[in-house]
Amino acid sequence: MPHPIESESYEILRRRVDTAGLGPLSRAVVERLVHTTADATWAGDLLVDEQALAAGRQALADGAPVIADVRMVAVGITSRPATVIAERTCGLEEFVRNAPVGAVWAIGQDVAIVTELVARCRAGEIQPALVIALPAGFVGAVEAKRAVRELGIPALTNRGERGGAALATAAVNALLYL
């Protein structure tokens, strides 16, 4: 049962942002991210795909691992542990090369991880269930997010430079709490 303040916040959000035309998973994710930031412009910046989100949600329901780029993303995912790439001693390339098939990737800070993930997906070395690629940055973030979308893998991204750990975390939580 949501806290009364949270319920009221979502009521306000729905008066300001029309999410009624979205599928249930897209709506949940968009609303969670708008709620997290109190910024209604996220509704128009996010590129959501109902089938991609369904694949991620099913993978999570089936117990797929969550792979986070940084601890800040991982600690916000409260209902299950996440593996943090930045804490792996084997190095980014080795970790990504040996990543579990069907994992849900939540990247909210590190553009280099998105770039490496794209390269490994292109090479057929990994097959994620869903990639949430929302790193912020002026250098390479837009291009990395575009590369994820061009792969044709299940993904949630946005168009611009904005992003961050809180958003990647919120997207995972939206799928977990449905």
From TrEMBL:
InterPro entries named in the record: Cbl_synth_CobH/CbiC, CobH/CbiC_sf
Top-level lineage group: Bacteria
Pathway given in the UniProt record: Cofactor biosynthesis; adenosylcobalamin biosynthesis
UniProt keywords, alphabetically: Cobalamin biosynthesis, Isomerase
Domain Cobalamin biosynthesis precorrin-8X methylmutase CobH/CbiC: 90-178
Protein family (similarity comment): Belongs to the CobH/CbiC family.
The protein's name: Precorrin-8X methylmutase
Provenance organism: Kutzneria chonburiensis
Lineage: Bacteria, Bacillati, Actinomycetota, Actinomycetes, Pseudonocardiales
